[in-house]
Each structure stands twice: as C-alpha cells, then as structure tokens.
Design goal:
The protein has 154 residues and is an alpha/beta fold. Helices cover 28% and strands 29% of the residues. The chain is built from 5 helices and 9 strands; from the N terminus they run E-E-E-H-H-E-H-E-H-E-E-E-E-H. The termini are far apart. The relative contact order is 0.25.
C-alpha cells in the first residue's frame, strides 16, 4: 500500500512534538520548502543511514531552501537519544499515536524479509512554499537521499 497523496496535492497540516518538547506544525514553515521524511524507527540501520545522509547534506539542502523534518512512531525521548547520538540538526517529530503518519497514508502492510507485516512505509514528501506536495519518494535511496531530493528540484 502506498500513500493516497499525490504530487500536486496540498500537504496535510499537522502539529506534533519534537525531540526537545517543542511544538512543530507544518504551518510554521509556510513560505519555505520542506523535506518531510517518514521513517520506521530511531537508531535502526537503514533509518540511521537515511538520517545521516540528510545530516551530512543538511547545509546543501538549506542552500536549496529546504527545511528538514523527520517523523516516526517513536516518542520524544527516543528521538532525543537518536539526535544526540548522531548529531542530527533538524527536528524529529514524535508520532506514537500515528496521527500524522495516518494523515500522510504511510502506515500499512509491507513485506519484510518475505513476511507481511504492518508498519511504516519509508516515504519522503517534498513540499513547496505554498504547502503543495511536489514530489513523493516512496522508495528513497537512503545513501543518496539528499542528492535525489536536490536533483528533483533542480
């Protein structure tokens, strides 16, 4: 199952709490481009590779006008440890009740090692200054994720 959203759709609004207990809303970033990436879990191998790629290229993403926000079902305390361990410079929004995850349609059945499981589909939404989704990466290239985001907007 993939998200019900498509490029050209208005990005669903949301408010959540980040790793420092701050309230983060999509509307806080009105007038800015946003990379909103959903990942399954803090401090797991693939999620770490993806997050560190965004960290390592954060300056480049900022130069291209992007704000980065991560979302996972983990809680704020887990996010705080993940941010501290890897020096992530962007907010990670806690969504243990999956309110944001469900709005973006990234929760559902997936195949893991030949087994069908229910979980989060790693998905990145690129949102323009007007809050419109311009690109959805349903299979991000985790080791080159920032590069593929920038290439899409070039």
């Amino acid at each position: 199952m993939a998200t019900h959203l498509q490029a050209g759709d208005k990005a669903p609004s949301f408010t959540g709490i980040d790793q420092d207990g701050n309230k983060i809303s999509l509307s806080d970033f009105k007038g800015q481009k946003v990379v909103l990436y959903f990942y399954p879990a803090d401090d797991t191998p693939v999620c770490t590779v993806q997050s560190c790629n965004l960290r390592d290229n954060y300056g480049l993403l900022k130069q291209h006008g992007f704000q980065v926000i991560g979302v996972s079902p983990d809680d704020s305390a887990s996010h705080k440890k993940f941010v501290q361990k890897f020096g992530l410079p962007f907010p990670l929004v806690a969504d243990p009740k999956r309110a944001i995850i469900e709005k973006y349609g990234v929760w559902g059945e997936k195949n893991m090692y030949g087994n069908l499981v229910i979980g989060l589909h790693r998905t990145t939404f690129v949102i323009d200054e007007k809050g419109v989704i311009t690109k959805i990466f349903t299979r991000p290239r985790n080791k080159q994720h920032a590069e593929e985001i920038i290439k899409h907007t070039a």
